[in-house]
Design a protein that fits this description.
Elements lengths: L11 H13 L35 H25 L13 H10 L2
Helix pairs in contact: 2-3
Length: 109
């Protein structure tokens, strides 16, 4: 007797087709293991941020919100701008640069 182990990925309707196939071939399905898998879904989330108004005081929270909204698409540019401003993180950014960084982030597409 020859034993074959076959792994088949599919949905529940494929299971009946497999049973029919093995019956035609003169065999039988002796063990069926099923697992529910979900295909990964790439989610995108748009975040509304208020753009700073000229003359308005820009806070670190404003800068963080803008950076978070733009980080996925523009991480290298943001890192370069932070470096230009003399830091590697928004947390360490001099408050006098908040407005400049906010304007930069707002200008990113």
């Amino acid at each position: 007797m020859i034993k074959f182990e076959i792994k088949i990925e599919g949905d529940a309707s494929d299971l009946q087709a497999l049973k029919n196939l093995t019956a035609v071939l003169g065999g039988e399905v002796t063990e069926v293991k099923t697992t529910k898998t979900e295909k990964p879904v790439e989610a995108t989330k748009e975040v509304e941020t208020e753009e700073p108004v000229e003359g308005e005081v820009v806070t670190i929270e404003d800068v963080r919100a803008l950076a978070k909204a733009k980080a996925r698409a523009h991480k290298p540019e943001i890192k370069a701008k932070l470096s230009e401003l003399g830091t590697n993180a928004i947390t360490n950014l001099d408050p006098s640069h908040y407005a400049e960084l906010a304007a930069f982030l707002t200008a990113l597409a």
